[in-house]
What we know:
The structure holds two protein chains of two kinds. Chain A is built from 13 helices and no strands.
Amino acid sequence: MNMRSEPMNLPLPIVQSTLRRSPWRRIYQGIFNGDALGFAGAMLLAVLLVVAIIGPLLVTHDPLLTTPKTLLPPSIEHWLGTDHFGRDVFSRTVTSLRIDFIVAGLGVTGAIFIGSFIGLVCGYLGGWLDELVMRLVDIVQSFPLLLIAMVLILVMGPGVESIVIVTVLINIPTYARVIRGEALSRKTLEYIDAARCSGASEASILFRHLMPNTLSPIIVHGSLNLAAAVGNVAALSFLGVGIRPPTPDLGVMVAEGTNYLIQGAWWMSIGPGLVLAATIFSLNLVGDCLESRLDPRRAEG
Amino acid sequence: MRIPPLTIYILRRVAISLVVLVGVSAIAFAMSYLLPSDPVTSRYPDITNEQREEMRRQMGLDQPLVVQYARYMESVFRGDFGKSFGTGNTVGLDLAIRIPATLELAIFGIVFGVLAGLPMGILGAVYRGSWIDHVMRVTNLLAQSIPAFWLGVTLIFWLYFQLRVVPSPIGRLSPMFTAPVGNTGFYTIDAMLAGRWDVAWAAFRQLLLPAFVLGLGVVSPIARITRAAMSDSLKEDYITFGRALGLKSRQLILGDAFRGAMIPIVTTLGFIVANVLAGAAIVETVFAWPGLGRYAVTAITTSDMAPVSTCILLIASSVAVANLLVDISYAFIDPRIRNEYAQ
């Protein structure tokens, strides 16, 4: 499989026929390869991202404002009801989505940069450094990462920064391993030799020639990883060591809702939970679609 | 003397696992060391500074880190994991009760996950690209995407508070029954061995919901790898040959192709053990299940040092051992791997 020269190695007639179609059609065919599920996932993700970005315009109430109207069921005034402090559940859910996207996104981006750097250098240089780092990765990956994350957050002190740092730390091994494999399999290819013959420095080979070609696995793992990270941030908050109340967070909202289920206040946890599930689901759909798009073994015959 | 290649392979894998275990124990020790609580102050809040220094000396906390780590490892090998000030028991005693609870839950969960995941993967591979494949794909992505803690809470609300079809989610057995005493520590099996079928049934019903939520986390990895492995093995020449001979599809798919797909499926075992043990922390918290996961979560949030390092050590070692077993079984299944070490 040759994916070096062209990012998407489509036969020429298909490229020409897609170019004549409308731009939407081209995106659908070109990026999603006619995969309706992946496309649906991307649309769902786009909607959620827009909601997260323009969230402050959408909220109907102040998400932090406590009122005497506690535990009201959903109504025209409060679309998803109110919680035990009389706060509007809909406004809190929208705000949470924004915070959770930022936290998980920053965490995964940090892990991508650091992990890919480690993986590139190890895969390219090889030798004892590679052996040492990969054994470390083995060790870290045999740990219960959720528990390690809890310990680290307690060590650093609770707060949004700690969660971002922990998300970076627990995801570094994934990228280190994947990118190392890519670098290892690509460093012997002709274009690297060509670059070396034309006098390129090692650093230039590493970052200008090798790195851009490892982007597609980064994108696939990035979206699947972001799905897991959103879930983990919420799970940490649910267990009480993540984002602290009163800052709205989907995991915190589900956790708070749990305490009022017995009084029948199902609306406190159902909305945030559904939004959380939809976010993770859309990211997984997109990741799954990209994976089968970029991995020829999984592509349709 | 010629050492058989299989022995070399196994010895090499065991050596790598030992290196991993040493790293694991060092990190587990470091974790408990890092926790923001002074074991002296948390146990005896109202002591003077001199008394505190004296206590620290007695507990060996003034020694260099390496010495403390060595003493820690020495006591671990003696089977002494320290004392939990949360429960007041030794960690060994606490774990003796909690490990069977988690194992029973995890085994039921994994059995459910495999029973659901394997057919989904096989169907996806056999009907590749058709609507059945797409339905399977969406189902297992959904299973992977629904957060376990929210699903648990929602199921408790509908099935217990609203419909009353499941028993109340308060651990392994309703307080109406006395816990069965037995050797396995599995309530279902101990009760059956004691001839108490009503207790076994009650314990089983108590298991259903948490095992379902826990098992849902492994449905997707199993279905995914099964679909990929089955797709590959269905393309093998021996399947085409079998078809040409006119063998029945059922025999070809479930017998021959599935056997060919077993290796990659078995390889995910280590991953699944890690997944289930991590998921247990959440599921046990939601369902008030008195197991390892909830013990670890409580210990971490209360800065209870001894249980934290022991739980982390225990879980990470189980994952390392599972991976070792996978690698060894791999060599037994595939002769090419052990022959690599023949030279």
